Amino acid sequence: MIDLTPIMKALVMLFFIIITYYLVPWLKNKVGVQNMDTFLAWVDIAVAAAEQIYDAADGDQKKAYVISFLEKKGFKVDAEELDNAIEAAVLHLHDQLYNNVEILQEATMTEESEIEEGATAQ
């Protein structure tokens, strides 16, 4: 009778080597992406809060608030990466705010025009 134990051990070892080689880096990459998404979400929250708390001219105070907020959350990021993330979040927030204002202004002007046209037609 043939002893298959060494062959089975070799196959199991090969299986674990393959998993270690492919699965572990994939998981690390996946966790890194999730951490980046979490970080960017917290940056957005901190920037929005700073915009609410401080005046428009208080840029340095806003930035200090965001940095302090992120440090309290446990994020330690390179200064350049942090600056880029903050600037992107500010741009995104301003885009949301000011595009909504423009849309509201256009809607108000359209309603006023329709009201004037209706009054003129009568």
**Rg (C-alpha, Å):** 28 Å
N-to-C SSE string, H for helix and E for strand: HHH
Number of helices: 3
Q: List unreliable stretches of 5+ residues.
A: none
Number of strand segments: 0
Average pLDDT over all residues? 78
Gap from first CA to last CA: 105 Å
User: Can you summarize the main beta sheet?
Assistant: none
Structural domains: how many: 1
Broad shape: elongated
Q: How would you classify the helix and strand content by structural class?
A: mainly alpha
* Estimated share of beta-strand residues: under 5%
What would you call the quaternary organization? single chain
Percent helix, as a range, is over 70%
